[in-house]
Amino acid sequence: GDFTEIRRRVVEATTLSVGSVPLYQAFIEAARKHGAVVDMEEDDLFRITAEQARLGTNFMAIHTGINYETMKRLQNQGRHGGLVSRGGAFMTAWMLHNEKENPLYAEFDYLVEILKEHEVTLSFGNGMRAGAVHDATDRAQIQELLINAELADKAHAAGVQTIIEGPGHIPVDEIETNVVLQKRVTNRKPFYMLGPLVTDIAPGYDDRVAAIGAALSSSYGADFICYVTPAEHLALPTPEEVYEGVISSRIAAHVGDMIKLKKRDADLEMGHARRDLDWERQFAVAINPERARAIRDERMPADADACTMCGDYCALKIVGRHFNF
User: Fold this and answer.
1) Residue 122: inside a domain, yes or no?
2) Distance, CA of 320 to CA of 324 (rounded, Å)
3) Residue 240's pLDDT band (cuts 50, 70, 90)
4) How far apart are CA 58 and CA 210, in angstroms?
5) Which of 174, 194, 214 is the last residue of a domain?
6) DSSP classification of residue 84
7) How many domains in the chain?
8) Cis previous bond, 196, omega within 30
């Protein structure tokens, strides 16, 4: 479609921060114009970045950490799950075909000038993220992190805010290591964790898989988490699947905040509401009140005090007759 018009309408439709990936547009325009992404002209990357910035984009994922050193690590090591980043694939193919360094890395100072002029936050793209748990925390991923960490320091010195993006598929026992490592080598810059998906065998349920990883990542110190839909790895999500993915992410964020920020007031309120069999208070505190109310209304009479799980044998009703909590 019309990239500019789509982006303009998105920016106008929300007061929230809007992000983009300029590299996508640059390579796709090259494919449409020349027939192949490898025929992209270097200036197009910077032209499109500036155009998107002028539209009011607040932050941009930019793949600066893919350079010859990063690709060497990937080539020497190999991978079980391949290279799954779209931006990483575009840039890697372009570099190999043209035998040139990544322009976003080679001309980083120019990129920073554009972002500073338009007050855009630089989110360092994670082109070497793992697409399978067996590739987690490998040398290509770490090499890219080290490059981005150095560039983030340069951006900060020039007055541009930064976010560091993190890897995608990580088993549970490596999540804390990744968060600690990222925070350490980047001088504790904000960390945007992509996922992480903690297992590869649950297509159709990857919103839940990612929520497990996101909750742990947040609790260990990640600052941003990425929503994933049930359709991940299968298809473009429907609006309903987007909604499900966002709810899963909100749950994950809350679970992380319970640890990181000791934010547990809502859980305390829910505990009291359940103790008192106060259904309206329960709905008010719930992350998704509409769904909770719909399930109860469908299965219980309006004047029922307990639920159908225990009915007249509700533990709270029985104990409530004898104890005053």
Assistant:
1) yes
2) 7
3) very high
4) 25
5) 194
6) -
7) 2
8) yes
